[in-house]
Design brief:
InterPro entries: Hpr_kin/Pase_C, P-loop_NTPase
CATH class: Alpha Beta
Helix content: 10-25%
Radius of gyration: 14 Å
Number of helices: 2
Oligomer: single chain
Pfam families: Hpr_kinase_C
Structural class: alpha/beta
CATH superfamily: P-loop containing nucleotide triphosphate hydrolases
Keywords: Kinase, Transferase
CATH architecture: 3-Layer(aba) Sandwich
Order of helices and strands: EHEEEEEEEEH
Distance between the termini: 21 Å
Shape: globular
Number of strands: 9
EC number: 2.7.11.-, 2.7.4.-
Strand order of the largest sheet: 1-7-9-8
GO molecular function: ATP binding; phosphorelay sensor kinase activity
Largest sheet: 4 strands, mixed
């Protein structure tokens, strides 16, 4: 999963909460994308910036992953109740818009990834057929 958003949108905050739930980090700030293969930029591998604390190094990272979902962080008022399916054009994977600072954001990301991977089905919304 790739998290996109402007500065201050909550990318690192959401990432820290996902890591706390057992998710693996590939990279913070920049990734190398080759088709659907995602890897850390060698110059930044193992580093993460935590707003208010600084840049940490030696962080355990997954050396590669397969991109299956893009999460675009938007203000809470910009999240559609029943969004239409959308695709992130550069890689042709599903894209969803979420608000990072909602208490349920990590759970929504998990549901979205399950839907993107075909492990959850929808009747209506971002992954409905």
């Amino acid at each position: 999963m790739l998290i996109l958003g402007p500065p201050g949108a909550g990318k690192s905050d959401l990432l820290l909460r996902l890591i706390g739930r057992g998710w693996s980090l590939v990279a913070d700030d920049q990734v190398v994308l080759d088709g659907l293969a995602v890897a850390p930029d060698p110059a930044l591998a193992g580093m993460i910036e935590v707003r208010g604390l600084g840049i940490f190094e030696g962080v355990a990272v997954a050396r590669e992953a397969r991109l299956a979902l893009v999460v675009e962080l938007v203000p809470p008022g910009a999240v559609a109740r029943l969004p239409e399916p959308a695709c992130w054009a550069p890689a042709g994977v599903p894209r969803v818009a979420l608000a990072a600072f909602e208490a349920s954001a990590c759970d929504k990301v998990a549901w979205a990834l399950d839907a993107a991977l075909g492990r959850a089905a929808q009747r209506a919304g971002a992954f409905a057929a």
